[in-house]
Amino acid sequence: GHRVVAHLHGGALPTFLDRWPRWGRRVLRRADAFVAPSPYLVDALAAHGFEARVIPNAIDLAAYPFRLRTAVEPRLFWMRSFHPLYNPLLAVRVLARVRAVHPGATLTMGGQDKGMLPAVRAEAARLGVADGVRLVGFLDAEGKRREAGAADVFLNTNRVDNTPVAVLEAGAFGLPVVATAVGGVPRLLRDGHDGLL
User: Is 0.85 surpassed by the pTM of this model?
Assistant: First the structure.
């Protein structure tokens, strides 16, 4: 007997709804209203006949010390879970390509292991860049400030995404962002203007 506002998340939602439209519509009909953190998901729902409003992801800028980088060094920072969805192997491959031009390039990787940490270590060794990869584990707020402050470029290598808070945090720290052009990321970052996609 209660009215329901469904707060939708997840860059994979459009694919899910396209794959199972009848089941998706049946579940979505149970809600009275929808909100989502990005126009990407609003458009996905509209394609299935549902109207949603955007309430964007937000962060407290005071918690993220901004540093303007007037000279950028090849100190890369990646921060997500070590899970296939977040594609950590791509970050290691990016380091290998950057090192072909900048041999001193480094990559700091922060996040919880969701089963891919051994594969990341193996890929770094296979590509000959293990000496340039630092695995720092889960980062609390202080850890994020420390590692973002020491880095000059943020990598977002996701296979699927919506409006990633990690990208918002990177921007708040003043980190230039290089990201895969998936899901809602192209609506968050304009290639060549807010980041590189």
Answer: yes
Tell which residue, 170, 172, 132, 138, has the closest CA to residue 154.
Answer: 170
Q: How many residues can be counted in the chain? A: 197
Whether residue 164 contacts residue 78, with contact meaning beta carbons closer than 8 Å, is answered with: no
Which residue matches tokens 């720290």? Answer: 173
For residues 122 and 146, the answer to whether their CB atoms sit within 8 Å is: no
Higher pLDDT, 115 or 9: 115
Q: Which pLDDT does position 11 carry in this prediction? A: 87
Torsion of CA 37, 112, 94, 166, to 10 degrees: 30
Assess contact for 79 and 144: CB atoms under 8 A: yes
Alpha-carbon radius of gyration of the chain: 19
Alpha carbon distance 124, 131 (integer Å): 8
User: For residue 57, what pLDDT is reported?
Assistant: 86
Residue 19 CB partners (closer than 8 Å, separation 6+): none
The pLDDT, as a whole number, for residue 176 is 96
Q: Measuring CA to CA, which residue among 15, 85, 89 is closest to residue 47?
A: 15
